[in-house]
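Input/output pair, single chain:
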Amino acid sequence: MKIEALVVEQKHAPFVQETLELAEPGPGEVLVKVVASGVCHTDAITQAGDMPLPLPGVLGHEGSGVVEALGEGVTNVEVGDHVIMGCPYCGQCRNCRRGEHRYCDLLGPAVASGQRFIGPQAGTSAYTRADGSSLSGHFFGQSSFATYSLTNANAVVTVDSEVPLEIMGVLACGITTGAGAVLNTARPSAGESLVVYGAGAVGLAAIMAARNTPATTIVAIDLHDSRLELATRYGATHTINSGREDALARILEICGGPADYVIDCTGVIAVIEQAAEAVGMLGTLILIGGAPAEARFSLDHQRTLWGKHVVGTLGGSGTSQDLIPALIGLYRQGRFPFNELVRMYDFDQVDQAFADSASGETIKPVLRIG
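Output:
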């Protein structure tokens, strides 16, 4: 079938709308008519060549839409279902069997090989150009910057038709990453403190989630007062503008000592090293933000030896099938208002969406596609 897609031809090339041919769903696959797709920093760094997706290719990995057709053997969804295309996973490796789909052994090929990564058609791309040449798709198992997407049936999460489908796709990655870092990785106990470096979409989602925990001290750190005002609105008990204040000294003052949990959403090495100093004995530093490839950071050995935990988290950990419905439930109760971070853009406004995201003009851009 013919689809319209945003294609990146080569490293640093712009998004160009192109008519492509998309194969019919194979065994275990679902064809989704895409309604909307979130715009994420990961798309931008892939366009810049910092993720190994072979180009040319179709990006997009926060898609929501309506099931259009089913491949052989698919029984968990039906045509007409409203769905979010969640994290791809094999379902067979040790981590998948443990219920940690985000850490699937095949995560690399699942997100950035440009081809199907499981099933009888593994190693092939369902995307071809008018001249018959193949190009990369299946980005994060979906390539949702297109009018239609093929995804694995085990990755889709059905949503109630009463919720606004066009904003739901952002729960596939960024928003869920921040929330899951709190709900699945940190899991603060009564009276504990949690600090979030970076109050963008991911950091604000972490703060919203923290408000739904027993943590009593929630600190947001950013360079922009406008972001800190939002953080206060969404649950931060304290804010620090790190451009004007000594963030580490203020954390120690606010928390009465080192923090129990510090979450880095910046990926900036100097910030990560400061964040590590803000965590004390038995405290936990949680890394979310994506630093450049091969980046390294340093820790004080002795202070780390005294029970300090340093852990990375991908996509909020756990499974899409558990975390996404939970966040939708909190959203419907008014306890997780991620919709207030979203600004909609038309399909042909993709460049503006990325520019506004980079400048901070928009917290969470979403492309309206179908």
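Residues 178-312 form a domain with the Rossmann fold fold (CATH 3.40.50.720). The chain has a mean pLDDT of 96.
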